[in-house]
Design brief:
Elements: E1 3-8, H1 13-26, E2 30-33, E3 37-42, E4 45-52, E5 55-62, H2 69-79
Antiparallel strand pairs: 1-5, 2-3, 3-4, 4-5
Length: 82
């Protein structure tokens, strides 16, 4: 079941997205998009993001049942820190 959450937009969004893209690609996943919106797919987790004034809205559309929603949220919040 899809779920959504919001995180604060980091001061240097371009650098943060580059860091996340590198981590995802090193794990054989993909991240496509820019500083406005995009799509991520890695280890069975698929989602999208849309940036707005001061925040990033993230929707996880698919995840393996073994991964709790809370763990996925915490992981994404952790890798999105500047």
């Amino acid at each position: 079941m899809p779920f959504s959450f919001t995180i604060a937009k980091p001061p240097d969004l371009t650098a943060t997205l580059h860091k996340i893209k590198t981590l995802v690609e090193d794990a054989s996943g993909t991240l496509t998009g820019d500083t406005h919106s995009g799509h991520i797919s890695c280890h069975g987790i698929e989602g999208t993001y849309i940036t707005s004034e001061g925040e990033i809205n993230i929707t996880v559309n698919k995840k393996p049942p073994i991964y709790p929603e809370r763990a996925v949220r915490e992981y994404i919040r952790g890798i999105a820190k500047p």
